[in-house]
Write a structure and sequence with these properties.
The protein is α+β, with helices and mostly antiparallel strands. Helices cover 48% and strands 28% of the residues. The protein contains three helices and seven strands, in the order ββββββαβαα. It folds into two domains: 97 residues, Jelly Rolls (Sandwich); 74 residues. A four-stranded antiparallel sheet has the order 1-6-3-4, with no helix packed on it.
Length: 177
């Protein structure tokens, strides 16, 4: 990351996910929900932790900035960010499950693994939907490029035939050829 540059990336998360994270060597950070509402903002700190309970499903945007001159001389103009983000099932849901059922630690681990598998499946389904949408967009673009190429070739051939016809008549008229 360069000095005074803002870097953003998005990640999909499900509703009722507890998003926890840690960042280091960043001057400012923000987290935005799918409707561009700021959930977390911190400026002027180089190291911080955060925890946000997500109330909506969708793509969450993470943005980071750095404006300190010392980083540009220390790291040769580039800044590396240490970032750790973890999205877990809501802690409240887990505690409710544990309180309502008398389960041993192994069963608790199995429940947590099952929830993780469900989250992974949801993410894979979401990724599959995104891949399908991207494939449709790609196919549509390819079709448009094909028709544009065909039109360009038609114009090229028409222009070539016109030039040959014009030059042939020109040479015949002035008896050059």
């Amino acid at each position: 990351m360069k000095l005074s540059e803002e870097k953003c990336f998005t990640e999909p998360y499900e509703i009722d996910t507890l998003l926890t994270g840690y960042f280091k060597l960043v001057e400012g950070s923000s987290i935005y929900d799918p409707h561009k509402k700021a959930l977390f903002q911190k400026n002027g700190v180089t190291e911080s932790k955060f925890a946000v309970q997500l109330e909506k499903s969708g793509d969450y945007k993470f943005c980071f900035t750095s404006r300190r001159q010392i980083y540009s001389t220390t790291f040769g103009g580039l800044l590396k960010i240490e970032l750790e983000i973890r999205g877990d099932r809501s802690q409240n849901e887990m505690f409710t499950d544990i309180k309502t059922k008398s389960i041993n630690p192994i069963e608790k681990e199995i429940i947590q693994m099952e929830q993780m598998v469900k989250q992974i499946k949801k993410y894979l389904d979401y990724s599959k939907e995104r891949e399908e949408a991207m494939r449709n967009t790609s196919e549509s673009t390819n079709a448009r490029v094909l028709w544009f190429s065909i039109l360009s070739l038609c114009i090229l051939f028409a222009s070539t035939f016109f030039q040959v016809y014009y030059l042939q008549n020109y040479f015949q008229r002035y008896k050059i050829f």
